[in-house]
């Protein structure tokens, strides 16, 4: 029974102590209220010294069908509303573009030195894009298209500067998005054109190689023909020269024979019988044989003939078929097909595939085009609407109130410990 009594007494004493403490704090209520009020007043006064913070916001949504169609009219673009919106948001949040817009817009004059010094973390660092919040609500009927909006915001002390800057940033981001699309389209067009040009060069080089091979084969055939014709001409000349020498020998022997027989002059009249002549011949000739040259021409004519043959400058006029051989040789040396192939300057004109490729290249070059600058990549609904941020002041006052209240209680407890309240003790 004694332990239970001890516990009961201990519990009772704790209740008495807490009650005394509470009574002591109540006794210090005036101090607590005054102390809390004074600190809160200081907090309120502090908020009046704070520079007001402004927020500028612009809202936008995806582009319309007409603008999307105009953009995708370029031959190498296949954009969607979502892809255009993503490109636009990426540029809005690009630190490089943000600084470029800041430098080009001359916004330094409206900002404090501290903000300018910390431009990346302070001024442009406050730029944010808020994605839409999709809510499920009974009033949103099934099948009804609800397109939420994006919001880009910036905060700063100078309302005029942040609003103008946000306007410039949104406008520049739209222009840069169009420039990027034009660049991508032109880049793809250049890649296609370069690809076609490389293919044309390959086909041209291939055709040139074929032409050179054909020229080499024709030259080989022509040279062989020239050698054969020249050999035929040389053989014909050699044969004619041998015939000339043989003819000189034969005529020389005939002239000597005619001289030994005393036949000096020709006997054309003698061997041409007429009605008044009756000449008999003692030659033993058959019907097929002719009169011998020494008898027909005589020594004098034969010697002249020998002299003419010996003094002959060339045998070519007397070579049968030499003219035809020379004509063939000239044709071989001046082969028109070979000359045409050798003088060809552009092999691409003879390749049908290159004609089609050049047409494709011309079509691509003519249709490169560009997106009009006034084309909307997104639809801007609100442009840099300003609001004053007061949440910070309210938070400061509220936190000051809570803090001062607890501090006053702490001080009251310290005072109670150091100097107990006499009334509370009685």
Q: pLDDT below 50 for ≥5 consecutive residues: which ranges?
A: 140-145, 274-281, 283-288, 421-426
Helix content: 55-70%
The whole-angstrom Rg is 61 Å
Q: What percentage of amino acids are in beta strands?
A: 5-15%
> SSE order, as H and E?
HHEHHHHHEEHHHHHHEHH
The spatial strand order of the largest sheet comes to 2-3-1-4
Main sheet specs: 4 strands, antiparallel
What is the overall pLDDT average?
Answer: 80
Shape: rod-shaped
Q: Helical region count? A: 15
Distance between the termini: 32 Å
- How many DSSP E strands? 4
Give the class from helix and strand content and strand pairing. Answer: alpha+beta
General description of the model:
The structure is a single chain. By secondary structure, the chain is of the alpha+beta class. Helix content is 64%, strand content 8%. The protein has a four-stranded antiparallel beta sheet. Helix 2 packs antiparallel against helix 14 and helix 4 crosses helix 8. It starts with a helix and ends with a helix. The C terminus is likely disordered.
